[in-house]
Design brief:
This protein is mostly beta strands. It has two domains: 137 residues, Alpha-Beta Complex (endopeptidase fold (from Nostoc punctiforme)); 78 residues, SH3 type barrels (Roll). It is 7% helix and 30% strand. The chain contains two helices and 15 strands. The strands form four sheets. Strands 9-15-10-11-12-13-14 form a seven-stranded mixed β-sheet, covered by helices on one side. β2 and β3 form a beta hairpin. It is elongated.
Length: 258
């Protein structure tokens, strides 16, 4: 899908900084597990099968319930009792609750990052939380054009993976989507042929190529991606994708270190 290279037309100065990025101080010791207390406005708190409101509900917790937090991961951004947060607390096998409703004594991460099969951190999102939705012109803080697939992918890398990615990350000009896999290799970032949750999927075919965020990997080898500017111009979509060079396929997967 079209992801304009900033060298192709004049660029106005972008706002400095990264919107919505939560920085967790490095070096601080994090316990193997943590505990918390559910606080809602009165209703019970839904327990989901995954880290997001798009996952099925598997139960609920009453206000005041104590929970043991096995690990934490990024997911759907939720506004709750303790502000807005994209952290989700895993409280058991296939059981997740939004950290925005759990008192832990900290605004940051208090438990280890969750791991999925193969050791990758679970960072599924499955929600249109892109801060420039509805905008198809102008430059974002990461120096990509708003509403393009590259801008949305940059948002996911910053917001979900906690990496200060931009169009000049590690001295490379990332430009159009078709160039991202080569830019990653030049920057020393691993590129794989099969996806994991949190990867940036790349298709180099077509005029501009296309990039998307891998939100889920299915047992049959297919995978679910979040993206912009594919199904409809400047619009979010969540769909099943596959390996391949056709319009709905991807051939490479950038695995940013987390």
């Amino acid at each position: 899908m079209r992801a304009l290279n900033l060298t192709k037309k004049p660029v106005r100065a972008a706002v400095a900084g990264v919107l919505g990025l939560t920085v967790v101080a490095g070096g601080a010791a994090i316990a193997d597990a943590a505990s918390g207390t559910v606080h809602t406005a009165g209703a019970s708190l839904s327990v989901r099968t995954g880290p997001g409101t798009g996952y099925a509900k598997t139960g609920s917790l009453r206000k005041g319930a104590k929970v043991d937090i096995v690990c934490q991961t990024r997911g759907t951004t939720v506004r709750g009792t303790y502000g807005t947060s994209s952290w989700w607390d895993k409280i058991g096998s296939g059981r997740y609750v939004s950290d925005a409703y759990v008192y832990t004594g900290s605004d940051g991460r208090v438990a280890p990052l969750c791991k999925t099969g193969g050791g990758s951190t679970s960072t599924g999102a499955i929600k249109n939380d892109y801060p420039y939705r509805g905008q198809g012109t102008g430059v974002d803080p990461w120096y990509f054009y708003k509403g393009q697939c590259t801008s949305f992918a940059a948002w996911r890398v910053n917001h979900n993976l906690g990496i200060r990615f931009s169009n000049s990350y590690r001295g490379q000009h990332w430009g159009n989507a078709e160039h991202w896999d080569n830019a990653a290799r030049a920057a020393g970032i691993p590129v794989y042929k099969h996806p994991r949750v949190g990867d940036i999927a790349v298709r180099s075919s077509g005029t501009y190529g296309h990039v998307a965020y891998v939100a889920k990997v299915n047992s049959d080898g297919s995978f679910m991606v979040e993206e912009y500017n594919h199904v409809r111009p400047d619009t979010y979509s969540y769909r099943k994708a596959h390996l391949g060079t056709d319009y709905n396929g991807f051939t490479d997967f950038i695995r940013f270190k987390r």
